Amino acid sequence: MAESAPAVSGTQGTAEQYNDLRNDAIDPTLGHVHDGTAGKTMLGTATPYVESGAGAVGTSALLARQDHVHPAQTIPAPGSATPVVESGSGSSGSATPYSRQDHVHPAAAAPGNHTYTDGFLGADAQCSSSSVWATGPSMTLGAGVWLVVANAMMGVNTSGTTFGVYTAIRSGGSVYAQSVFYGSPEAPYGNVAMSCIISVGSSQTVSLDFINFGTGTSTMFWRMNAAQPYSSSIRAIRLGH
Predict the structure, then answer these.
(1) Same structural domain for residues 30 and 126?
(2) C-alpha R_g of the chain
(3) Is 99 contained in some domain?
(4) Tell me: the pLDDT tens digits for 5-59?
(5) Domain of 200, in residue numbers
(6) Does 10 map to a domain?
(7) Which of 72, 146, 207, 229 could disulfide-link to 236, CB 3.0 to 4.6 Å?
(8) In sequence order, what are the beta bridge partners of 146?
(9) What is the CATH number of the domain that holds 175?
């Protein structure tokens, strides 16, 4: 057969060239020759993506070179500010720096001394009415929430009948706690005690008052005897700081 130029276009050749194609392994100048670029996969030239948590299979037909380098991920820096003091309400925060594992929050300020106040009778107080309150020991409370405790030594002059006395922690006409003492000729004396919590918006006077129900006279004693003064009193401590 007549010699022909090597095929470089990737054509399939003809039947008469069969023997020459077989000899192609021995003599590359004979038979057909494949186009060197046909079907070849190209290398990518784009910068690789930054790695993400979810990842993806990808769809690109381009190859990555073995020495390619992904861009570094942006890692938050550790914070340098002193951690805030813990608060009761808390907050989710908005800062992007992270906290180191050995960080320490500043200690919360130590609670201040609780405010305490009280009031005592300096003399016996009497009530002979069932419609008008008699005032016992009193005190003035500032704004805040207060625990109020009161006690009184009561006595009644029953004139042979049994009747009772209301005692109450009062402020501005409002009753916050009350107790009842029933007196009789056989038991004319008794002690009453009560407590309550009062929320005060502005300064106000709180007192331990009493009023009769029935006929007779009642007495709130300021002391039981010379060795035990201030038997009737009202006391309060402000809750919180």
Answers:
(1) no
(2) 50
(3) no
(4) 444 444 444 444 444 444 444 455 545 555 555 555 677 777 777 777 677 778 8
(5) 116-238
(6) yes
(7) 146
(8) 198, 238
(9) 2.60.120.760
Inside any domain, residue 100? no
The one-letter amino acid code at 140 reads T
Two tokens, residue 115: 């405010």
Q: What is the pTM of this model?
A: 0.53
The rounded percent of the chain whose pLDDT value lies above 90 is 31
In a domain, 78, yes or no: no
Q: Please count the residues of the chain.
A: 241
Burial (0-12, 13-18, 19+ Cβ within 10 Å), 209: buried
CA-to-CA dists, residue 107 to 81, 87, 103, 240, angstroms? 15, 11, 13, 18
Number of domains observed in the structure of the chain: 2
Structure tokens at 94: 């908005």
pLDDT for 149 equals 97
Residue pointed to by tokens 């992904």: 70
34 shares its domain with 129: no
Are both 122 and 21 inside the same structural domain? Answer: no
Give the amino acid at 65: R
Q: How far apart are CA 229 and CA 214, in angstroms?
A: 29
Classify residue 191 as left (phi > 0), alpha (psi -120 to 50) or beta.
Answer: beta
With 0-12 / 13-18 / 19 or more C-beta atoms within 10 angstroms meaning exposed / middle / buried, residue 127 is buried
Q: Are residues 35 and 120 in the same domain?
A: no
